[in-house]
Each structure stands twice: as C-alpha cells, then as structure tokens.
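Hi support team,

I'm filing this because I wasn't sure whether my run with tetrahydrodeoxyuridine finished correctly. The job status page said complete, but I'd like someone to confirm that the output block is well-formed before I use it downstream. Pasting the exact inputs I used:
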Amino acid sequence: MKNQTTNIASNAYAPYSNSDEYCYVLGKSGTFYPGVRVENSSYPLTIPADQAAICSSLGNGDHPVAILDSSRSNQLSKFWIEKFNLKKLESLPEDAVIYDPIVKKVDDVNLYLQKLCESTVSDQSDFPVTALLKTTDGYIPGVNIEFKEWNLGLCAERVALSRALASGYSEFLGMHVYAPQSEYISPCGACRQVLFEFMPDQTLVLHHDDQSLSRHLVSHLLPNGFSSSSLKK
Ligand code: THU
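And here is everything the job wrote out:
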C-alpha cells in the first residue's frame, strides 16, 4: 500500500466536488478493503467510495460484513448496509489488515487474466471479464462484479482502477482486458470514458478468445471525448 491508512481520504479523486470521501469495507476474512470516491468529468459516471470497496471485497472472494464510511449517510450507503446487513464501524482497529491489490510481478499476463476469471462475480450475465491495470508499482487486478441490481455492479476495468486509486497507486501505464465468452472483447462506453479521465495516452491491450491481441490508445477509443476541459467555462 502506497499511502498509509490515515491518508486514505487524500487518495480520493474528487477534483470536481472536493469531497474526499473514503470508506473501508470489512470482509468476513478479517481484511479491510479501502474505497475512495472516483469522480469523472461526466458526473454520473462517478464511482462512490462504498460501491468501490464493496466490489473490491467481492472481487477478492470475500463477503462484506461491516463498513466504515466517511460520507454522509445517503440512499446508496443505506442500500449497501441493508443488502449485506453491514455493521457500522466508527474507526479502524489499530491492527487492521488492509487489502493491498498490487501484484508486483506477472510473468504471463494472459495466463493471469485467465486465472482471474475465477474471481469474477458474473452470475447475472455469465460473462466474466478480467483486467490488469499496469502501474509504476506493479499490476492491479480487476474483475467484473454483478448484483441483482444491474446498475450497481462494476466492470472489471473500473474495479481495477478504483482499487488502484484507493490504495494510492495513481501512475498508470496501460491496461489489459480479457473476456473468454467474447469473440472480440472491447471495453464498454462507460469504461472508455472512465479510462479517458485517467490515462488518455496509455494503451489498452485486448486479449481475445483466439489468443490474438489488439492494442488501442485509450484516446482513440473515445474520439472527441468529453473531458474536464469540456467543463471549463
Ligand atoms: N463488462 C466488463 O467488465 N467490461 C467491459 O468492458 C464490458 C462489460 C461486464 C459488465 C457486466 O458484468 C458484464 O460484462 C455484461 O455486461
């Protein structure tokens, strides 16, 4: 973990609202999963801290049991609390074990992406997707997470990105994406927009079912994309 737990609020990406929200979700295993608010110039694509932490825990095969949330109680946090019957925590124990998503060394990216499919929560679509976000410190894994409430799940790309930011890894070098049920995997529009916010000049490597690869600059996947400069008055 790059930033100490006390600094987690500063890991939030909230340039539009300045509300540095963070959260920890305690998993049944005893591990705490950090989440931070990840805003987007297209405001509705913002990932709330609690959604990020819940998805991170589920993507690590854990089950949320408690939550420590910096944000004012809102409808969505009530939703997560009720959905998982979460206990509310007031502070982080001193000896808390904090999840660190970094994988320092990956020998075979394609094999890693395949193995990661076991961690997806894709029972709604039967369409597993995995991602590896390359950072200056190593790789951050992401898997797609689905709920009965479809709009509250997250794509593999966004799980990887929100995990990275929550743990203080913010220098992105590119991303790999894999979806075995797809003949030609290509990131959804929402993920293109979210990746465009953080790494427009980096490359997305798509790993197809037939073992072929295609490479795209993120900015090329979103021609004339909407960005923070579009918001300037
Ligand atoms: N999905 C991803 O994880 N990434 C993409 O780029 C495309 C879609 C997931 C979301 C959902 O869990 C499932 O695939 C079907 O939409």
